[in-house]
Design a protein that fits this description.
With 200 residues, this protein is α+β, with helices and mostly antiparallel strands. The protein is built from 7 helices and 4 strands, in the order E-H-E-H-E-E-H-H-H-H-H. A hairpin with a 5-residue loop joins strand 3 and strand 4. The protein is globular, with a radius of gyration of 17 Å. The mean pLDDT is 95.
Amino acid sequence: MKIYGDSQSGNCYKLQLVASFLNISYEWIELDIKNGDTKTESFLKLNPNGKIPILLLDDGKVLSESNAILNFLAEGSELVPKDSFEKAKVLQWQFFEQYSHEPYIAVARFIQHYLGIPEERKVEYESKRSGGYKALRVMEIQLEKTPFLIGERLTVADISLFAYTHVAHEGGFDLSEYPKIREWIQRIQNQKNFIPMKSR
């Protein structure tokens, strides 16, 4: 199988991480979003939405959206709960990640880390930081109760939220007020087969 992605993207890193945890073999196709690699005719044939990551299977089937790919790769493993309620809780956190976390923390990271907070985006940057801190508070509340987001063990929910949370400082977020999140980050980094986010 092939995974098309950008090594600097948290959404793409999720897939590198789950593949490492589960010893899944794949070919990584590096794309540069800023260079327009996702807008080419050949890429748009694979994903008309023009976004990464995407998974291309050996039989030609294509899957997009990071959490959908993540869940597909982890299906049947210990990273996906068998209990139907716990599985629903995984989805709850993944929807939270895409709607209440990633749009704030990932975008703030992009504006600061890649653009250097240009004048015309300062107002947007501050609004993203506000939303990001709200998401971090929600996570901290849960992690005060359990070592991982669903309970006592690592699941794909943790992988989904870890991707951008562990680099939140690159978006100007101070995690010093979130001790449980910092412990959780360390807990995940201590997992067997953990790999750090790659750099180009």
